[in-house]
Design a protein that fits this description.
mainly alpha, 5 strands
Length: about 300
């Protein structure tokens, strides 16, 4: 019997091992495929990080809010020095692009544009030195870069065919620099870019692309149109202080409307011209009051500016 018992011992060990393996198999964690792993954005770590980042971002956002010249609250985290540096870089690129089309400062057209621009700048009491260039081109456009660099395409003069009309355009562009609209747009772009990166890394790259399109449509374009409307308002104030006729702004945009290509306002960086004309008409009475308070009577106005060599 002892021999038989010894012969059966391996069978008992095998039986014991089988029961142990069965017990371990039954207690194993449920089988999961590799693609059923919990996504990062479903974890507590993600939500703790997101919550902390949101609170810090909200505090940072609030600390960088400031009032525009019209009292509109906006987010700006770009310093004046950074804005000027970016403007200097854009100025060099623009001069390189149009180096063979820059009209000499001694030409009558350039002197005419200089006269109107400086009259507005002095009336608006804007500090700093300004550079003004006329580009020989049929394009009907003008723009001002940060750092007080004004560019006017000669083709604009066929539409802005009076001094008051040219003053409308230049006052509008100078208002953009005065209100620091470039810094405002750059600040918004930086904040949105940070959000795109976060979504792309931790959620879904395709969601980031969709978010980029939605942000352009719902944030960037509306903000750009708001800046344009604000520049119209500030520009009317500037040209009125310089004793130009604010009514001419309406007539200018009516002429511009005849030559424009229709783009839905929702997809445009600028308000529709019809909407713009309506807004400017509503702003004219206030600008006229500013003109009456700032300018001498009409019969003395020409003598006044002739004495200044304007």
């Amino acid at each position: 019997m002892q021999f038989i018992s010894q012969r059966m011992w391996p069978i008992r060990r095998l039986s014991l091992g089988t029961r142990t393996q069965t017990r371990l198999f039954n207690n194993r964690p449920p089988y999961q495929r590799f693609n059923n792993k919990q996504k990062f954005w479903q974890t507590r770590t993600f939500w703790y990080t997101t919550g902390t980042g949101t609170v810090c971002g909200a505090i940072y956002y609030q600390s960088h809010l400031e009032d525009s010249p019209t009292g509109r609250r906006r987010f700006i985290n770009v310093s004046s020095a950074e804005e000027t540096q970016l403007g200097a870089s854009a100025y060099m690129q623009t001069m390189a692009t149009y180096r063979f089309q820059i009209v000499p400062h001694t030409s009558p057209v350039s002197q005419y544009v200089h006269k109107v621009a400086h009259r507005i700048i002095r009336a608006a009491n804007i500090p700093g030195s300004w550079e003004i260039h006329v580009i020989n081109s049929r394009e009907k456009n003008a723009f001002v870069l940060p750092g007080n660099k004004i560019f006017v395409f000669s083709g604009l003069l066929s539409v802005a065919n009076t001094e008051d009309a040219l003053a409308t355009v230049l006052a509008h562009e100078i208002a953009h620099v005065f209100a620091r609209h470039s810094a405002e747009k750059l600040s918004a772009a930086k904040a949105l870019q940070l959000l795109y990166i976060f979504v792309s890394l931790f959620v879904d790259p395709s969601a980031a692309e969709m978010g980029r399109s939605m942000a352009t449509l719902l944030v960037e374009l509306p903000n750009s149109r708001q800046c344009e409307q604000e520049a119209d308002e500030i520009g009317l104030d500037f040209m009125a202080r310089a004793c130009y006729d604010p009514h001419q702004a309406v007539e200018l945009w009516q002429r511009m409307q005849e030559n424009e290509q229709m783009v839905p306002q929702l997809l445009s960086t600028h308000p529709s011209t019809a909407k713009r004309i309506e807004n400017i008409r509503n702003m004219v009475p206030k600008a006229l009051m500013k003109k009456e308070a700032s300018c001498p009577p009409n019969d003395l106005t020409q003598t006044f500016f002739k004495q200044l060599g304007l």
